[in-house]
Specification:
The chain is mostly beta strands. It is about 0% helix and about 50% strand. The strands form two sheets. It has a six-stranded mixed beta sheet with strand order 2-10-9-4-5-6, with no helix packed on it. A four-stranded antiparallel beta sheet has the order 1-3-8-7, with no helix packed on it. The radius of gyration is 13 Å and the shape is globular. The termini are far apart. The model has no long low-confidence stretch (mean pLDDT about 95).
Amino acid sequence: QVQLVESGGGLVQAGESLTLSCLASGSIFSNKNMGWYRQAPGKQREWVATVRSDRSTYFADFVKGRFAISRDNAKNTIYLQMNSLKPEDTALYYCNSAPSYFSWGQGTQVTVSA
């Protein structure tokens, strides 16, 4: 049973930065592609970024150049460094495998004020 615990969200102003963390337990982490996803109010959950087991990274166009994703296999943790945040980045952020097949965690709320 894999458990995903996201943390690091908060309330920031536009242009500021945040770093999210996701701790994965209960599975062999290092050989899994992992990703960040988000869900804004009234919208469907969408993919944000992926870090593969070989550490290659991929981003949705709407965060490309602003966000970075990384992993620390020794800590079973992935990170999402979010820079130049915009109000439209406001959402509940989740991590999961990529593609997603684990149960979703609680997510961490990111709110960006104008």
